Amino acid sequence: MKKIIQSNKYVTVICIAIIIIVIALVWVFGIHSTVRQDAVFNVTRGASVSHVAAQLDARGLIDSQFLFKLAVRGNGGAVQSGQYDIPRGASVWRIAGMFAHGDVAATTVVVPEGLTVKQIKELLMNDTTLTGGVECGAGTDLPVCNLHDGDLFPDTYRVARGTSRLALLDLMRKKMLEIESKWDRAGRIVPKPLKTWNDVITLASIVQKETPKKSEMPIVASVYLNRLRDGMRLQADPTVVYALTDGLGDMRGRPLLRGALKINSPYNTYTNYGLPPAPIANVGLDAIRAVLQPADTNYLYFVADGRGGHRFARTYAEHMKNHADWRMIKKIQNEN
């Protein structure tokens, strides 16, 4: 009987010891933290676990390199490069898990529709969460090094903080290629007189610049398609702006004067018939759909209505009346 009682005591002691060890391990690995405030930490490409452990220890983010290495091993055995946000109170196990699973800090980059390549590059250079330049080095010959307007797809991009600007530009380029590929697989259907993808994106870029309203885009597209079919010049102001600004696409607050409509450029649709030789901006899906599925109208003209939209007209006389109304609206706005 005494042996049984003594044996039970040993079992109890062992169980208590195990519980104590488990609690200690949970505290050491999963609760204890030396991270007193939120920190940003960079794991460089190719860095070893030992090197990362030493860096964390030097910054006071862990207090045992050995425990960090054990935690990494428990999470797969390796660390992934990137920039990480380490929150205040993060345990060694949580930090190791973040690094092992690549839970890098992310950033959102919003690229609006209708910007030119030059404007997009300016936008990316002003984003401090990205790294590197927007131009390729000498001797580099990659698709992203030779971008043209219409090559990029404007969108909201969620990427790892520290992503290179060239990598993001290439991501935008590939996304536009995917859209072109879908069009290609769908049978390359385009409204006459358009023939190629370049035609579609070129007209879509004009539509994109003419109106921000999704509901108006198919109507604006129909106006330009009607003018093309009738052999009329497009007479689109954004094409003149593109020519005047050497492809920037922004007058920087300067007015577009009547004399500028005579600028000698293949992009000037006031002096040249047909489409410009290439897109004048980077376009979104709404503008592309508007060109591929335009409204069924016989409109040939449109002018601003003073409320962010446009008035459309079938005849020049009707257009002139709408234009007179617009001048009156502008006069009232200027007086106020």
Structure commentary:
Helix content is 46%, strand content 8%. It contains eleven helices and six strands. The mean pLDDT is 89. A two-stranded antiparallel ribbon has the order 1-2. α8 (217-229) packs across α10. It is elongated and about 105 Å long. β5 and β6 form a beta hairpin. It has three domains: 32-101, 2-Layer Sandwich (Dna Ligase, domain 1), CATH 3.30.1490; 106-185, no CATH class; 197-335, no CATH class. The chain is mainly alpha-helical and 336 residues long.
Quick structural gist:
The protein is mainly α. The protein contains 11 helices and 6 strands.
- CA-to-CA gap between the ends? 104 Å
Order of helices and strands: HEHHEHEHEHHHHHEEH
Name the overall outline. elongated
Instruction: Point out poorly predicted stretches.
Output: none
Q: Biggest sheet: strands, sense, closure?
A: 2 strands, antiparallel
How many DSSP H or I helices? 11
Overall structural class, as computed from helix and strand content, comes to: mainly alpha
Domains (count): 3
- Share of helix among residues? 40-55%
